[in-house]
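Quick one, T. Sequence first:
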Amino acid sequence: MSLRTTESVRVPAPPALVFPHVAALDRYPHWMRLVHDAVPTDSEGVPTADPPADPPAWTVELRARVGPFARSKQLRMVRRLHEPDRLVEFERAEVDGRQHARWALRVDVEAADDDSSVVTMHLAYDGALWTGGLLDRVLDDEIRRARAGLTAVVTGEPTR
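Structure tokens:
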């Protein structure tokens, strides 16, 4: 099974102000509820004060609620591509030597004519744990809800 989803949002700020919020995964818990926690790690997966320079990595805990139940998943993500103020890509890269489902996130930030930015997030997941029926919809809803969260954190406005 696999999941592919793309969501876009126009943020009333230029790319230079938006990009820092999407370029480092430890900033995501501030605006995306799906990312419960993200901790910088070294190449061995050990938490560090700052991500290493080549390539930066994070241990990420994803969490989604369905009524009284929660589904949680921890994975190590590495930033594979970084073009300042324009593009960032993250991909799952575990260090335990086992085969894991693919998680990939690409974020494009484009300048708009009115000094705002269009942020487009592409999420790809090739496993079975987070897909199928209700949980698939919950995952999509959390990603859609993050549009307002990103706008709020960039502009300093409270979320609804």
